[in-house]
């Protein structure tokens, strides 16, 4: 019995020594990583950064965290971010995010309210720390922009993982339940909408320790396996692919199938996604193409920095780039 007690105490002492050494190493790696990111142009500010979780976890808590990308296009602010990793699997991390945070993108600030927003992150257990899987989910989201628009959702899920074909290529999934806009739309059906997106994204470099140095990785290609929005009797289905050049200009074609297309076009215009002055032109052209059918199929084309819906030009294409 005495020998068993000695063995247990010795093992406990060894484990405690392992935990405190590992925690100190983690602190050092965090500080080194932050210093390297700042040297690459990232702006990272935090009131405090603490490590805890003894004996079974490594917990890191950052308070009043602000992160800005090297070019200043994106700034994220959160009052607190908590991460937790089991001591025997430190490459699998759970992030608990606060009920309110902000993201500023190219001059527009969006306040994100959430219920139960969490993310899990897995990276390779080697020096590259390459992304293995990322999953983020919430019971509800509430997005409010300082430009006047807002959206609410029920359950939300985002997932990202390497697709195993080429470095920097990822399968992406987005599911949003019970989506409602914050403004009244005359053509909106009763009840909320449901959104599902299944895509493959090719980045210019992998999401790993070196790939995240400097400016954010950029999209080179986006392939939609399916993107579907259902709202009452209305339905929008999209598939296709676009390539994105080094300046963020997209080229390619997305095929749209619109059920209840008259109301869908009105909704798109009311939501600010289509110039209202073009609505009657597009509606007349769509009526001819639909040939009396309730489902209209037409391409959204990106070419030479411009967009066209079917044969009708609808304006400049967005620049898909972050700096």
UniProtKB/TrEMBL annotation:
Taxonomically, the superkingdom here is Bacteria
Instruction: Note the InterPro entries from the entry.
Output: DUF2125
What name goes with this protein? DUF2125 domain-containing protein
Kindly list the organism's lineage.
Bacteria, Pseudomonadati, Pseudomonadota, Alphaproteobacteria, Rhodobacterales
